[in-house]
Amino acid sequence: MDARFTAEQDEIRRTVREVLAARCGPEDVRAAVRTDAGYDPALWATLAKQLGLPGLALPEDYGGVGCTITELALASEEVGRGPAPSPLLSTAVLAAPLLLALGTEDQRAELLPRIASGELTAALAVPGTALATALALVGGNRGDWAGGGRAGGVQARRVRGAWRLYGEAGQVLDGHSAGLLLVAAHAGGFARSRTLLFLVRDAGLRTRQTALDVTRPRARVRLRDVEAELLGEDGADVPGALAAVGNRAAAVLACEAVGAADRVLERTVEYVGQREQFGRAIGSFQAVKHRLADVYVSVQTARSAAYYAAWAAGQGEPVGGLALAQALEALRTAAAEGIQLHGGIGFTWEHEAHLFFKRAAGDELLFGPVHRLRAHAADAAGLFEGREVAV
Q: Residue 330 sits in which domain range?
């Protein structure tokens, strides 16, 4: 492994950072999340059409740039510094890799170029609150999370040769605005029980939900006799594909969280150098220096883990969840210290430090929590096999 960035990777980071620095300040973020889409369409058009972010990790044959997951992760690190609300995570990190892995040639040829250009956004819809389970981040995903038997979750049935979906999916990232939904559904009843993925263009009733992290809008999707198209072939290893995408997504999310943690640390260091107490800048107090030094070490450790996970994801190594746990913990610590060291103003909801604190808490709710990410990584590595653990 060569830990140095290439000239192309450095250029991606620099370009994305410059664009977001000019167009994604705290007030821009707050204005964007109040729109119907939950993000700034003009900024998304710039990120997609001019910088090509949705197609970074897609093959050139489908209109992509042909880079690896590492380049997408590095771009996401800069997006996390905003934190910039956009459909990049739902479209390019979760949905597009599933289309590439499972879709037929016709499906890939139709949809991936539109995703790469930013024309089409997509979202992954799984039943209830099972996103982390479906992506195999907190345990195995070959159970009945999609809805076992004849009730619960989302059910798929063949009606006169066509697939129809029934059920409900909650916490669908960007589900209220996505032009395409990838819906995980249970099919076959008890006799041929299996989980399949379906393409849904007319998603029925969508309701945008109130979210702790307003920069990650999500929706509840109710499917009542909705027509759907099977993604790929019946019999494909859907849980395996979801687990592979989950590992890659965790690496990208880890880099995004590191970018957010680095940004909030920068702002906190800047503030303590300006705020005075007893005639001195509070940043000169040893206790404050020690606290920020601990945060710095935490962020740098998480950055190393996230970069390694992004590289390893390209080699098929399942270490994304562990890196994500480290990064979310670093972000939560950096945001909490930032709120405290900003004093009275830091405790108001209007301060930008809360955007980062809510991002850490919201991502733990969606993809964690941290202790379960680590526990699953330990189980997968067989860390405690044959040992008695005292309780």
A: 240-381
